[in-house]
Amino acid sequence: MKENPGIRSLDIAWPLYTDLYELTMAQGYFYEGMAEKAASFDYFFRKVPCGGGYVVFAGMADVVDVLSDFRFSSEALEYLRASGFQPEFLTYLRDFRFKGTIYSAHEGEIVFPNTPLVVVEGTLLEAQLIETLLLNMVNFQSLVATRAGRISQVVEPERIFLDFGLRRAQGLGGIQAARAAVIGGAAATSNVEAGRRYGIRITGTMAHAWIQAFDNELEAFRAFVRRYPDRSILLVDTYHTLASGVPNAIITAKELEARGHRLLGIRIDSGDMAYLARHARKMLDEAGLSYVKIFASNQLDEWIIRSLNEQKAPIDGFGVGTRLVTSYQCPALDGVYKLSSFDGRPRMKISDDPEKTTLPGRKRVFRYYDAGGLFYRDGILLAEEDPQHVKRLVHPVHRRLWTPVGDLPREALLHPVMIEGRPADIERDPYRINEYRRRRLALTPPEMLRFENPHIYKVGVSEHLWELKHSLIEQKQHKQ
Question: Is 478 strand, coil or helix?
Fold first, then answer.
């Protein structure tokens, strides 16, 4: 099978796909003699979007693909020269390659606030340069995959949902949104370029323009099925869904039957979906067309689909667009990228808001399971700690709050995705990543899957990490 081109083949100067301050700091590190010193950064997020209980982690395969061929072209260097960067620094960048090591959660993992999900280790300059790229791709794809995962929760097993979001997406983000939608459970996408890049199944029906271009609706339906006799889905709401669209679809379906073919389905794109679907189903069944499926589209999201299910609307598939790929009600994931060690010493950000004070040092992350085999806690340990010796996890802020974990089963949450600049063997296929997501969701306590007031998943730190954090806070306070 031909390798999918992925995101790296877009005609973008990837080292310039960044904020100016990343390059400004990189040049400063270079002239200060700090560029080649060892550093580590952690990626995590602080809040689950849309008031949910979990996030579906996504986007790292694209990050790895871009970093595997991350180099400054002569055109990029000339642009930076014209923008005021210094000749010696540009000479350094001419031979620059990313040679760092990155540890990451698997794509499709069910993840929670304040758990480090990506750890980047390398030189200070190279780890700094990739910050914006990593945040852009991981924050966005995780956001869309999370919304798609929530939609999957309410789409019943015998039904499907499809990504119809490209036309309302924020520019080229629609390409990565389609990938993330499949990771979250979409069966296919209308986005042809995303299909080519990522090996995603593509799907589509017709627009109202097709029907309007003909003198009448029945003629438009007949013309369409002549061209696509085995995969036609007819849009029935251009003029009047029940008085015109469905009756004309029935006529067309019967004519197709006579020629040895079957109409795949009808699509309703406006109006009271539950009411129209019930009446359309009755009309189709009475005509002996029980095999014709009903699809719905038009501003759908997880709450509307849940409502349609509660109303027992006989809808077989949902085309979800705007509210998925833009994450309409909660349009950003607040993932951050923070320096945790430099030149062999732990570093941290100290904030007046204790929740925004970061954790210092190089780390490892473990997920602990309860007696029933479900996710119980995430534990953040210092890299040099032996997890077998960690008997309890402490609240990152309040030490009096702790949980015993010494006898609980655990697994490492982070795995190498790049080793000294070379991509590791990671899963890239969005459908296989979705299968992993489904398996992990089955291990998530059900109270964390609620849309309203979900249970808060607990994340703790080892006592050694807690002590390191608070000793550094005290040192900084004495120096100020």
Answer: helix
Residue 327 in this model has a pLDDT that exceeds 80: yes
* Amino acid at residue number 202: I
Give the single-character DSSP code of 179: H
Predicted confidence (pLDDT) at residue 70 exceeds the cutoff of 70:
yes
Sign of CA dihedral 342, 345, 346, 348: negative
462, amino acid identity: S
pLDDT bucket at 7, cuts 50 / 70 / 90: confident
In sign, the C-alpha dihedral spanning 324, 329, 335, 336 is positive
Instruction: Count CA atoms closer than 13 A to 282's CA, side-chain side.
Output: 8
- Three-class SS state of 442: coil
Residue by residue, DSSP assigns 56-91 as E---HHHHHHHHTT----HHHHHHHHHTT--HHHHH
Q: Answer yes or no: are the C-beta atoms of 135 and 62 closer than 8 Å.
A: no
User: How far is the C-alpha of 91 from the C-alpha of 306, rounded, in Å?
Assistant: 57
Q: What's the one-letter identity of residue 43? A: Y
Q: Which amino acid is at 412?
A: A
Buried b (16+ CB within 10 A) or exposed e, 460-476: bbbbbbbebbeebeeee
At position 36, the amino acid (one-letter code) is: E
Q: How far apart are CA 305 and CA 186, in angstroms?
A: 14
For the record, the structure tokens of 332 come out as 């950003």
pLDDT at residue 479, rounded to an integer: 67
Q: Could you report the per-residue pLDDT of 126-185, keeping only the tens digit for each?
A: 999 999 999 999 999 999 999 999 999 999 989 999 999 999 999 999 999 999 999 999
Q: Which residue has the tokens 């979001």?
A: 165
Confidence of residue 480 (pLDDT cuts 50, 70, 90): low
Q: What is the pLDDT of residue 10?
A: 73
Burial classification of residue 351, based on how many CB atoms lie within 10 Å of its CB (0-12 exposed, 13-18 middle, 19 or more buried): exposed
Say how far apart CA 120 and CA 141 lie, in whole Å.
Answer: 19
* CB distance 166 to 178 below 8 Å: yes
Mean pLDDT of the chain: 96
Parallel, antiparallel or unpaired: strands 458-461 and 375-382: parallel
